[in-house]
Amino acid sequence: MLTTNRYSPDITELSVSAWFYRNRTVAGFDNPARSLYVSIRELVENSLDACEEERVLPEVSVFLKREGERSDDLDVLNVGPEIFELVVKDNGKGMQKEDIPVLIGKMLTGTKFTLKQSRGTFGLGGSLAILYGQVTTQEPVDVITGKVGDEYGHRVTMRLDIETNQPIILNEQKIEKSPHESGTMVSYKLQGDWIRSKRKISDYFSQTAIIVPYASLLFETPDGEVLCYDRVIDKLPVAPREMKPHPRGIDVELLKKMIGVARAKTMKSFMKNSFQRVGVSIAEDFLSSAEIDPDRNPTTLEQKDLVTLMNALVCYDRFLPPSPKSLSPASIDVLAAGVQRLSPEFMVFKQRSPNVSEGHPFIIETGVAYGGKLDSGTNIFRFANRIPLLYDERSDVTYRVVRDLNLKNYGLNHEDPLIFVMHICSTKIPYKTVGKEYIGDVDVVRKEIELGFKECLREIGEKVRKRDRVHKERKRENRLVEYYTFIAEVLSSSMRKEVHCTRIFDSRGVDMIE
């Protein structure tokens, strides 16, 4: 909300939606082409999350329709944004009528001090996409949703009040539906540049089909083309659990908030009940090393005490590593099923053991495939919490790891048809931009990616060498057969007698001539 600051009447305060409206470029809405891509991505991510939370195999359909006919002149020049209608439909859990305005038409901030892996980073990508549509077309958003077991669904038409971050309901109505149906359909208009974003959007769907092969995806383009990716596996990843924060991922401001909502009357109970993997003995030992009275009431801590506590949390080395139960890796089987769409000749996938960065657990999954539908040369597929990363590849840590690999050690080179796949899952992905486009070069993350790729390359290199040996032996055998056949024909001709050559095999499987 845009309000007057009570300390200075000349200073105004912005609501969450107003701030993001004024700074939407930081989230990827910086031009019509990229905005169209980001809008589709954000809504598809929301749909996939809704299905996976309900533990149903996702079925997501996306329709992008051009409003009006495109001018021939613009087709020739390949310039100029247009107005599109974007429709995204899923078979997720649906929403209650009273939740629709809050979940769709309002940008939220979190209030729970728990951690769990999710595709979104801030929880406002979908709302920001709808906000972008509203400010570029001045058209409302239409939401149709229903839950399993309900005889009626709900249709809500609304707008977002940017300055107050509040939804404005324009129309509500009940709609009939089958009690067995569930899901949500979001429809709104936005400005975009299809010509410039076409390739990225197509790549997004093809790579999403790789990382979520258990989903059925359909995308109808403004050109009338239909991209359909059928489900190839009926296995959902393990669902992540909500976990308490780890002591090493805490700062002073978060400590203040946690103490403010905690019911603990002593520092010992606060440590035990507010953080994961902190028992009574570790809580007592930590408070003793930090010279903090275990029986002290947390609400009596002053600013300097909080700073001391935070520094002690960082330095204490007996805390157990964060639990990986808050994570949901894709799994080797799912990744292999997804990459199988590319028909590789060989492929190897590995999952690294859980590790920690800045108090947040993460798991790296790597894969290397050889051959297939893609062109020769190195191809890199990057995923973070099952989101394809398509922009800023050369800034990403994965690209730098692949670039520095000495493939000759494995009998390979960068001109070979190689596919490198990297998936990181974490409660806090180390993105370098708000737009979630590339992963920063963090030492511990880089090391895990590098070790994962090297482990895959050792097996791929052995498979390729074995194939080459077999090809070489067969080529040698064929030459011997041709030589023996030639000798037999010469002898037959010189002796004026027909000689019949019979191809037989010895005990080693080597061709011989009889």
Short structural description:
With 514 residues, the chain is of the alpha+beta class. The chain has 13 helices and 18 strands. The protein folds into four domains: 3-229, Histidine kinase-like ATPase, C-terminal domain (Heat Shock Protein 90), CATH 3.30.565.10; 247-315, Orthogonal Bundle (Helicase, Ruva Protein, domain 3), CATH 1.10.8; 327-461, Ribosomal Protein S5, domain 2 (2-Layer Sandwich); 464-513, no CATH class.
Q: What is the average of the pLDDT values?
A: 85
Low-confidence stretches: 4-9, 72-77
Number of helices, counting only DSSP H or I runs of 4 residues or more: 13
What CATH architecture label of the largest domain applies? 2-Layer Sandwich
CATH class of the largest domain: Alpha Beta
* Cα separation of the termini: 93 Å
The residue fraction in helices comes out at 25-40%
Q: Which structural class fits the helix and strand makeup?
A: alpha+beta
Q: Globular, elongated, flat, extended or rod-shaped: what is the shape? A: globular
CATH topology of the largest domain: Heat Shock Protein 90
What proportion strand? 15-25%
Count of individual beta strands: 18
* Name of the CATH homologous superfamily of the largest domain: Histidine kinase-like ATPase, C-terminal domain
Give the biggest beta sheet: 8 strands, mixed
The domain count comes to 4
* Strand line-up across the major sheet: 7-6-5-8-4-3-9-10
Write the layout of secondary structure elements.
Blueprint: E1 3-4, E2 12-13, H1 16-22, H2 32-53, E3 59-66, H3 72-77, E4 82-89, H4 100-105, H5 125-137, E5 141-146, E6 152-161, E7 166-176, E8 183-192, H6 194-211, E9 216-220, E10 226-229, H7 252-261, H8 267-274, H9 280-289, H10 303-315, H11 332-339, E11 346-351, E12 355-357, E13 360-370, E14 378-384, E15 387-389, H12 397-404, E16 418-426, H13 443-494, E17 503-505, E18 511-513
Parallel strand pairs: 3-9, 14-16
Antiparallel strand pairs: 1-2, 3-4, 4-8, 5-6, 5-8, 6-7, 9-10, 11-13, 12-13, 13-16, 14-15, 17-18
Helix pairs in contact: 2-5, 2-6, 8-9, 12-13
